[in-house]
């Protein structure tokens, strides 16, 4: 089968590449081994008619106006600012840790300056910051680290904070004010009709053909493409020749409550110290949907299963670099997205990287 462009994976990375090349007159074949488009951002109505995210909660946020503008061609938006509470010793506290968290947890009534002084007093100064334990202790000290971070991280990654890159816990800021939003990006919104509808519009082009339930392994020798864009796991592409590159998996347990309009006060509640799941998300907060019942998802971290997260340790980064050398030498094939670039990307970062690559290649075809 002949095509200008083969795109492996119909998630954000693949969909942006497909749309860009199709709009520049190239014939594009998109394959995905799953039965649907959208990758991990796929959403659907559950059997009760509530819009849920099959692969866990996806909240769109960005500081990149060009990413917002690009996606706005394919969707309207509903403004949504995510809020998260953490369940510690039976009470719910705002996360990221902020003024409220400190006052509520320690029965204080500090103002912003008081909270800054509090952190200064409890923090353990670490230089250099080598890992996620360093960054948390350096910011908030041991008690808050043990209550909010250590056990959550152990559950999520199967590793201690000290084994993970500082960038992991560094995703969560610490605040002295009472801002209780999870993200502070300028643009925070959900696709008004859902992610799947947005992907349908991105891929709706006469030059794009989509083959679902199609694994790259089974067609790699059958498709004759000038350029291939691969967004699956990097180690699988190279037949695991250097061994398995670790990816963290999750299992998602969805549940619907027909008799309950609301399950919890905010979109997500984290459970750092109890249960085997890390967090519960209630979708109606994210989507604004009205329904007499409500649907939630619990996330159970797993070592095996579908790959969802690269695992940011120095050992894994070294193994990734070995695979990357092979990837760089693979002429006509480009490795894109969270799994193939082995980067802990948010959705907007995947879109930005795919836009950059497509504009480079389309302006300077090799
Ligand atoms: P994916 O979406 O993983 O798409 C890759 C596609 O490739 C998949 O559909 C897969 O089936 C397909 N594929 C793989 N191998 C093959 C093969 N051999 N043959 C054919 N097809 C193949 N980001 C945010 O910005 N905000 C959030 O709130 C957020 N929440 C998240 C929550 C969870 C639980 C997870 C796991 C991620 C979250 N993310 C979030 C990150 C977001 O999911 C990713 O940044 C984004 O989806 C990555 O897009 P991608 O195209 O790189 O990969
Ligand atoms: N984290 C934590 N406690 C929390 C929230 C986050 O220890 O209450 C740490 C944990 O290591 C987690 C990382 O910070 O994996 C990043 O959290 P984020 O919510 O960004 O994770 P994601 O949404 O990507 O799963």
UniProtKB/TrEMBL annotation:
Belongs to the UDP-galactopyranose/dTDP-fucopyranose mutase family. Its cofactor is FAD. Residues 147-344 form the UDP-galactopyranose mutase C-terminal domain. Its EC number is 5.4.99.9. InterPro entries: GDP_dissociation_inhibitor (IPR018203), UDP-GALP_mutase (IPR004379), UDP-GalPyranose_mutase_C (IPR015899). This is UDP-galactopyranose mutase. It is an enzyme of class 5 (isomerase). Keywords: FAD, Flavoprotein, Isomerase. One of its GO terms (molecular function) is GDP-dissociation inhibitor activity. It comes from the Bacteria. One of its GO terms (cellular component) is cytosol. The keyword Isomerase applies. It holds the Pfam family GLF. It comes from Tunturiibacter psychrotolerans. GO terms for biological process: small GTPase-mediated signal transduction.
């Amino acid at each position: 089968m002949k095509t200008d462009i083969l795109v492996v994976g119909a998630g954000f990375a693949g969909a942006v590449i497909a749309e860009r090349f199709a709009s520049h007159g190239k014939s594009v074949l998109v394959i995905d081994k799953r039965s649907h488009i959208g990758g991990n951002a796929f959403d659907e109505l559950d059997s009760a008619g509530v819009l849920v995210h099959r692969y866990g909660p996806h909240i769109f946020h960005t500081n990149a106006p060009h990413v917002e503008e690009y996606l706005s061609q394919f969707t309207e938006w509903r403004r949504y600012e995510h809020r998260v509470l953490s369940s510690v010793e039976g009470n719910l506290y705002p996360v990221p840790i902020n003024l409220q968290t400190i006052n509520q947890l320690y029965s204080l009534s500090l103002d912003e300056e008081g909270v800054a002084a509090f952190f200064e007093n409890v923090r353990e100064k670490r230089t250099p910051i080598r890992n996620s334990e360093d960054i948390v202790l350096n910011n908030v000290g041991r008690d808050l680290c043990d209550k909010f971070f250590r056990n959550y991280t152990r559950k999520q990654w199967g590793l201690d904070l000290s084994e993970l890159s500082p960038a992991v816990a560094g995703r969560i800021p610490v605040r002295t004010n009472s801002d209780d939003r999870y993200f502070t990006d300028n643009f925070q919104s959900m696709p008004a009709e859902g992610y799947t509808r947005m992907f349908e519009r991105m891929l709706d082009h006469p030059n794009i053909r989509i083959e679902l339930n199609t694994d790259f392994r089974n067609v790699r020798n059958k498709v004759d493409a000038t350029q291939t864009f691969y967004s699956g796991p990097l180690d699988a592409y190279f037949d695991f020749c250097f061994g398995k590159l670790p990816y963290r998996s999750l299992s998602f347990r969805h549940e619907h409550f027909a008799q309950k309009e609301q399950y919890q006060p905010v979109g997500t509640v984290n459970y750092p110290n109890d249960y085997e799941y890390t967090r519960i998300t209630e979708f109606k907060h994210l989507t604004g949907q009205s329904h007499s019942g409500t649907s939630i998802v619990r996330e159970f971290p797993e070592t095996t299963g579908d790959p969802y997260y690269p695992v940011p340790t120095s050992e894994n980064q070294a193994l990734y670099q070995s695979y990357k050398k092979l990837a760089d030498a693979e002429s006509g094939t480009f490795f894109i997205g969270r799994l193939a670039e082995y980067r802990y990307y948010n959705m907007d970062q995947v879109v930005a990287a795919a836009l950059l690559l497509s504009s480079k290649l389309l302006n300077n075809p090799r």
